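P.,

For your records, the input lines for the assembly:
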Amino acid sequence: MTSKKTRLPLSLLRPLAWAAAIAIHSASAQVPDAAASREDMVALGKRFDSAEALYQYLQQQAGGSTTLTWQTLPDWRGVYSMDFGQTGLAYDTSQAPGQLPPAKLIPEQQAILEERVRLAQQGIEFDPLGRCEPPGAARGVSEPFLREYAITPEQTWLMNEVAAETRRIYTDGRQHLAPDDRFPTFDGDSIGFWHEGRLVIHTNQLRAGMYQRSQPNYSDDIELVEIMQKADERTLISHVWAFDPQYLLEPWYTRKTYVKLTDPEKQLRIHYWYCFDNQNNDVQEQEDGSTQFKDFDFD
Amino acid sequence: MNRQFLLAAILLLSAPVFGHHSTAMFDANKTITVTGTVKEFQYSNPHSWLIVEVRSDDGSVVTWGFEAEGPTTLMRSGIRKSTLPAGTRLTITGHPMTDGRPAAAWVKAVLEDGSELNPRNGFVPR
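Structure tokens returned:
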């Protein structure tokens, strides 16, 4: 039996192809992708007064979330680590070497930051992680150790080697807790949605902390919006906006790059991170604000 | 912002060891190098410690500790728990403690066969 194929004339195919291309481009432009420029993302953040408003805008732009199924999960398997290039542990990857973080802080917090950096130059510095506190969601984006991701249709888990921290991103359509029921936590409460391989996250309920050593503080009012997307097989890009009406004069944007590590022999494992397993890792804050090891045990 | 401030800030970005605590107790502007024998390799999170016995000219032994990152960073640097068994002879360089105690942030170790072990190599994504 033979089938007769219907062929469209070339004159009709070309406009159809262009229309399809334009439609694809428009759709992918609705929510910023991994290639979006820093300048555009900074400008996008400044258009909104709150993280919630930016998140709602992104939801509108997406025209609704993509419902993931077990067959359509993005492939974020593997072990990743931050590519910190020339900026070290700086929260903002646009921070120039030798310059202060470019956050637009209220004057009081700017003064605290400058004093923190000045004291650190003199060896006077204490990091709360020294007490084995977890970095939390805001600082966590700038930690240089290993990361893993677990995606299910209803939740995505962002796992960080530091302090064995796991952020749960609820993508099942639930909303945040009611305002009266919220309380500050290290990782906050994260809801999100998927759109064309991009995970869009809104996080509130965070507790005060600092973005990183020699970096600014943030208050209990900080909220984050993040867009995470694989740019290629080995690269995961994250756009992050911090909104902190107490300490920031405008949203603070940073772009993070995480690289999937090659581990052909499958040797890498994330182990539990407990600071007091080894007595030689026990540090204490001194009266002058510096850090010192408690007691060494080399015997 | 003055030039001295800029220089200091740059140095902060090149902290001796990444981990859970400030590295201000180490002097990033100084290095010490000793030759000795591995007593113990404490392969632990969030920091590992290489304990090295160093014999002085007068015959006395000083036990030094060299701090490095945790197991996953060491593993990525090619430094396994089994790489440095007790009794291994090496020459090791580090940033010393500012208070004079015999401890340092591990920068580089050279084994008798000439191979070098640098924990910070683990931070290069590959």
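Two observations worth noting. The longest strand of chain A covers residues 223-232. Chain A touches chain B through 55 residues (CB under 8 Å).

Regards
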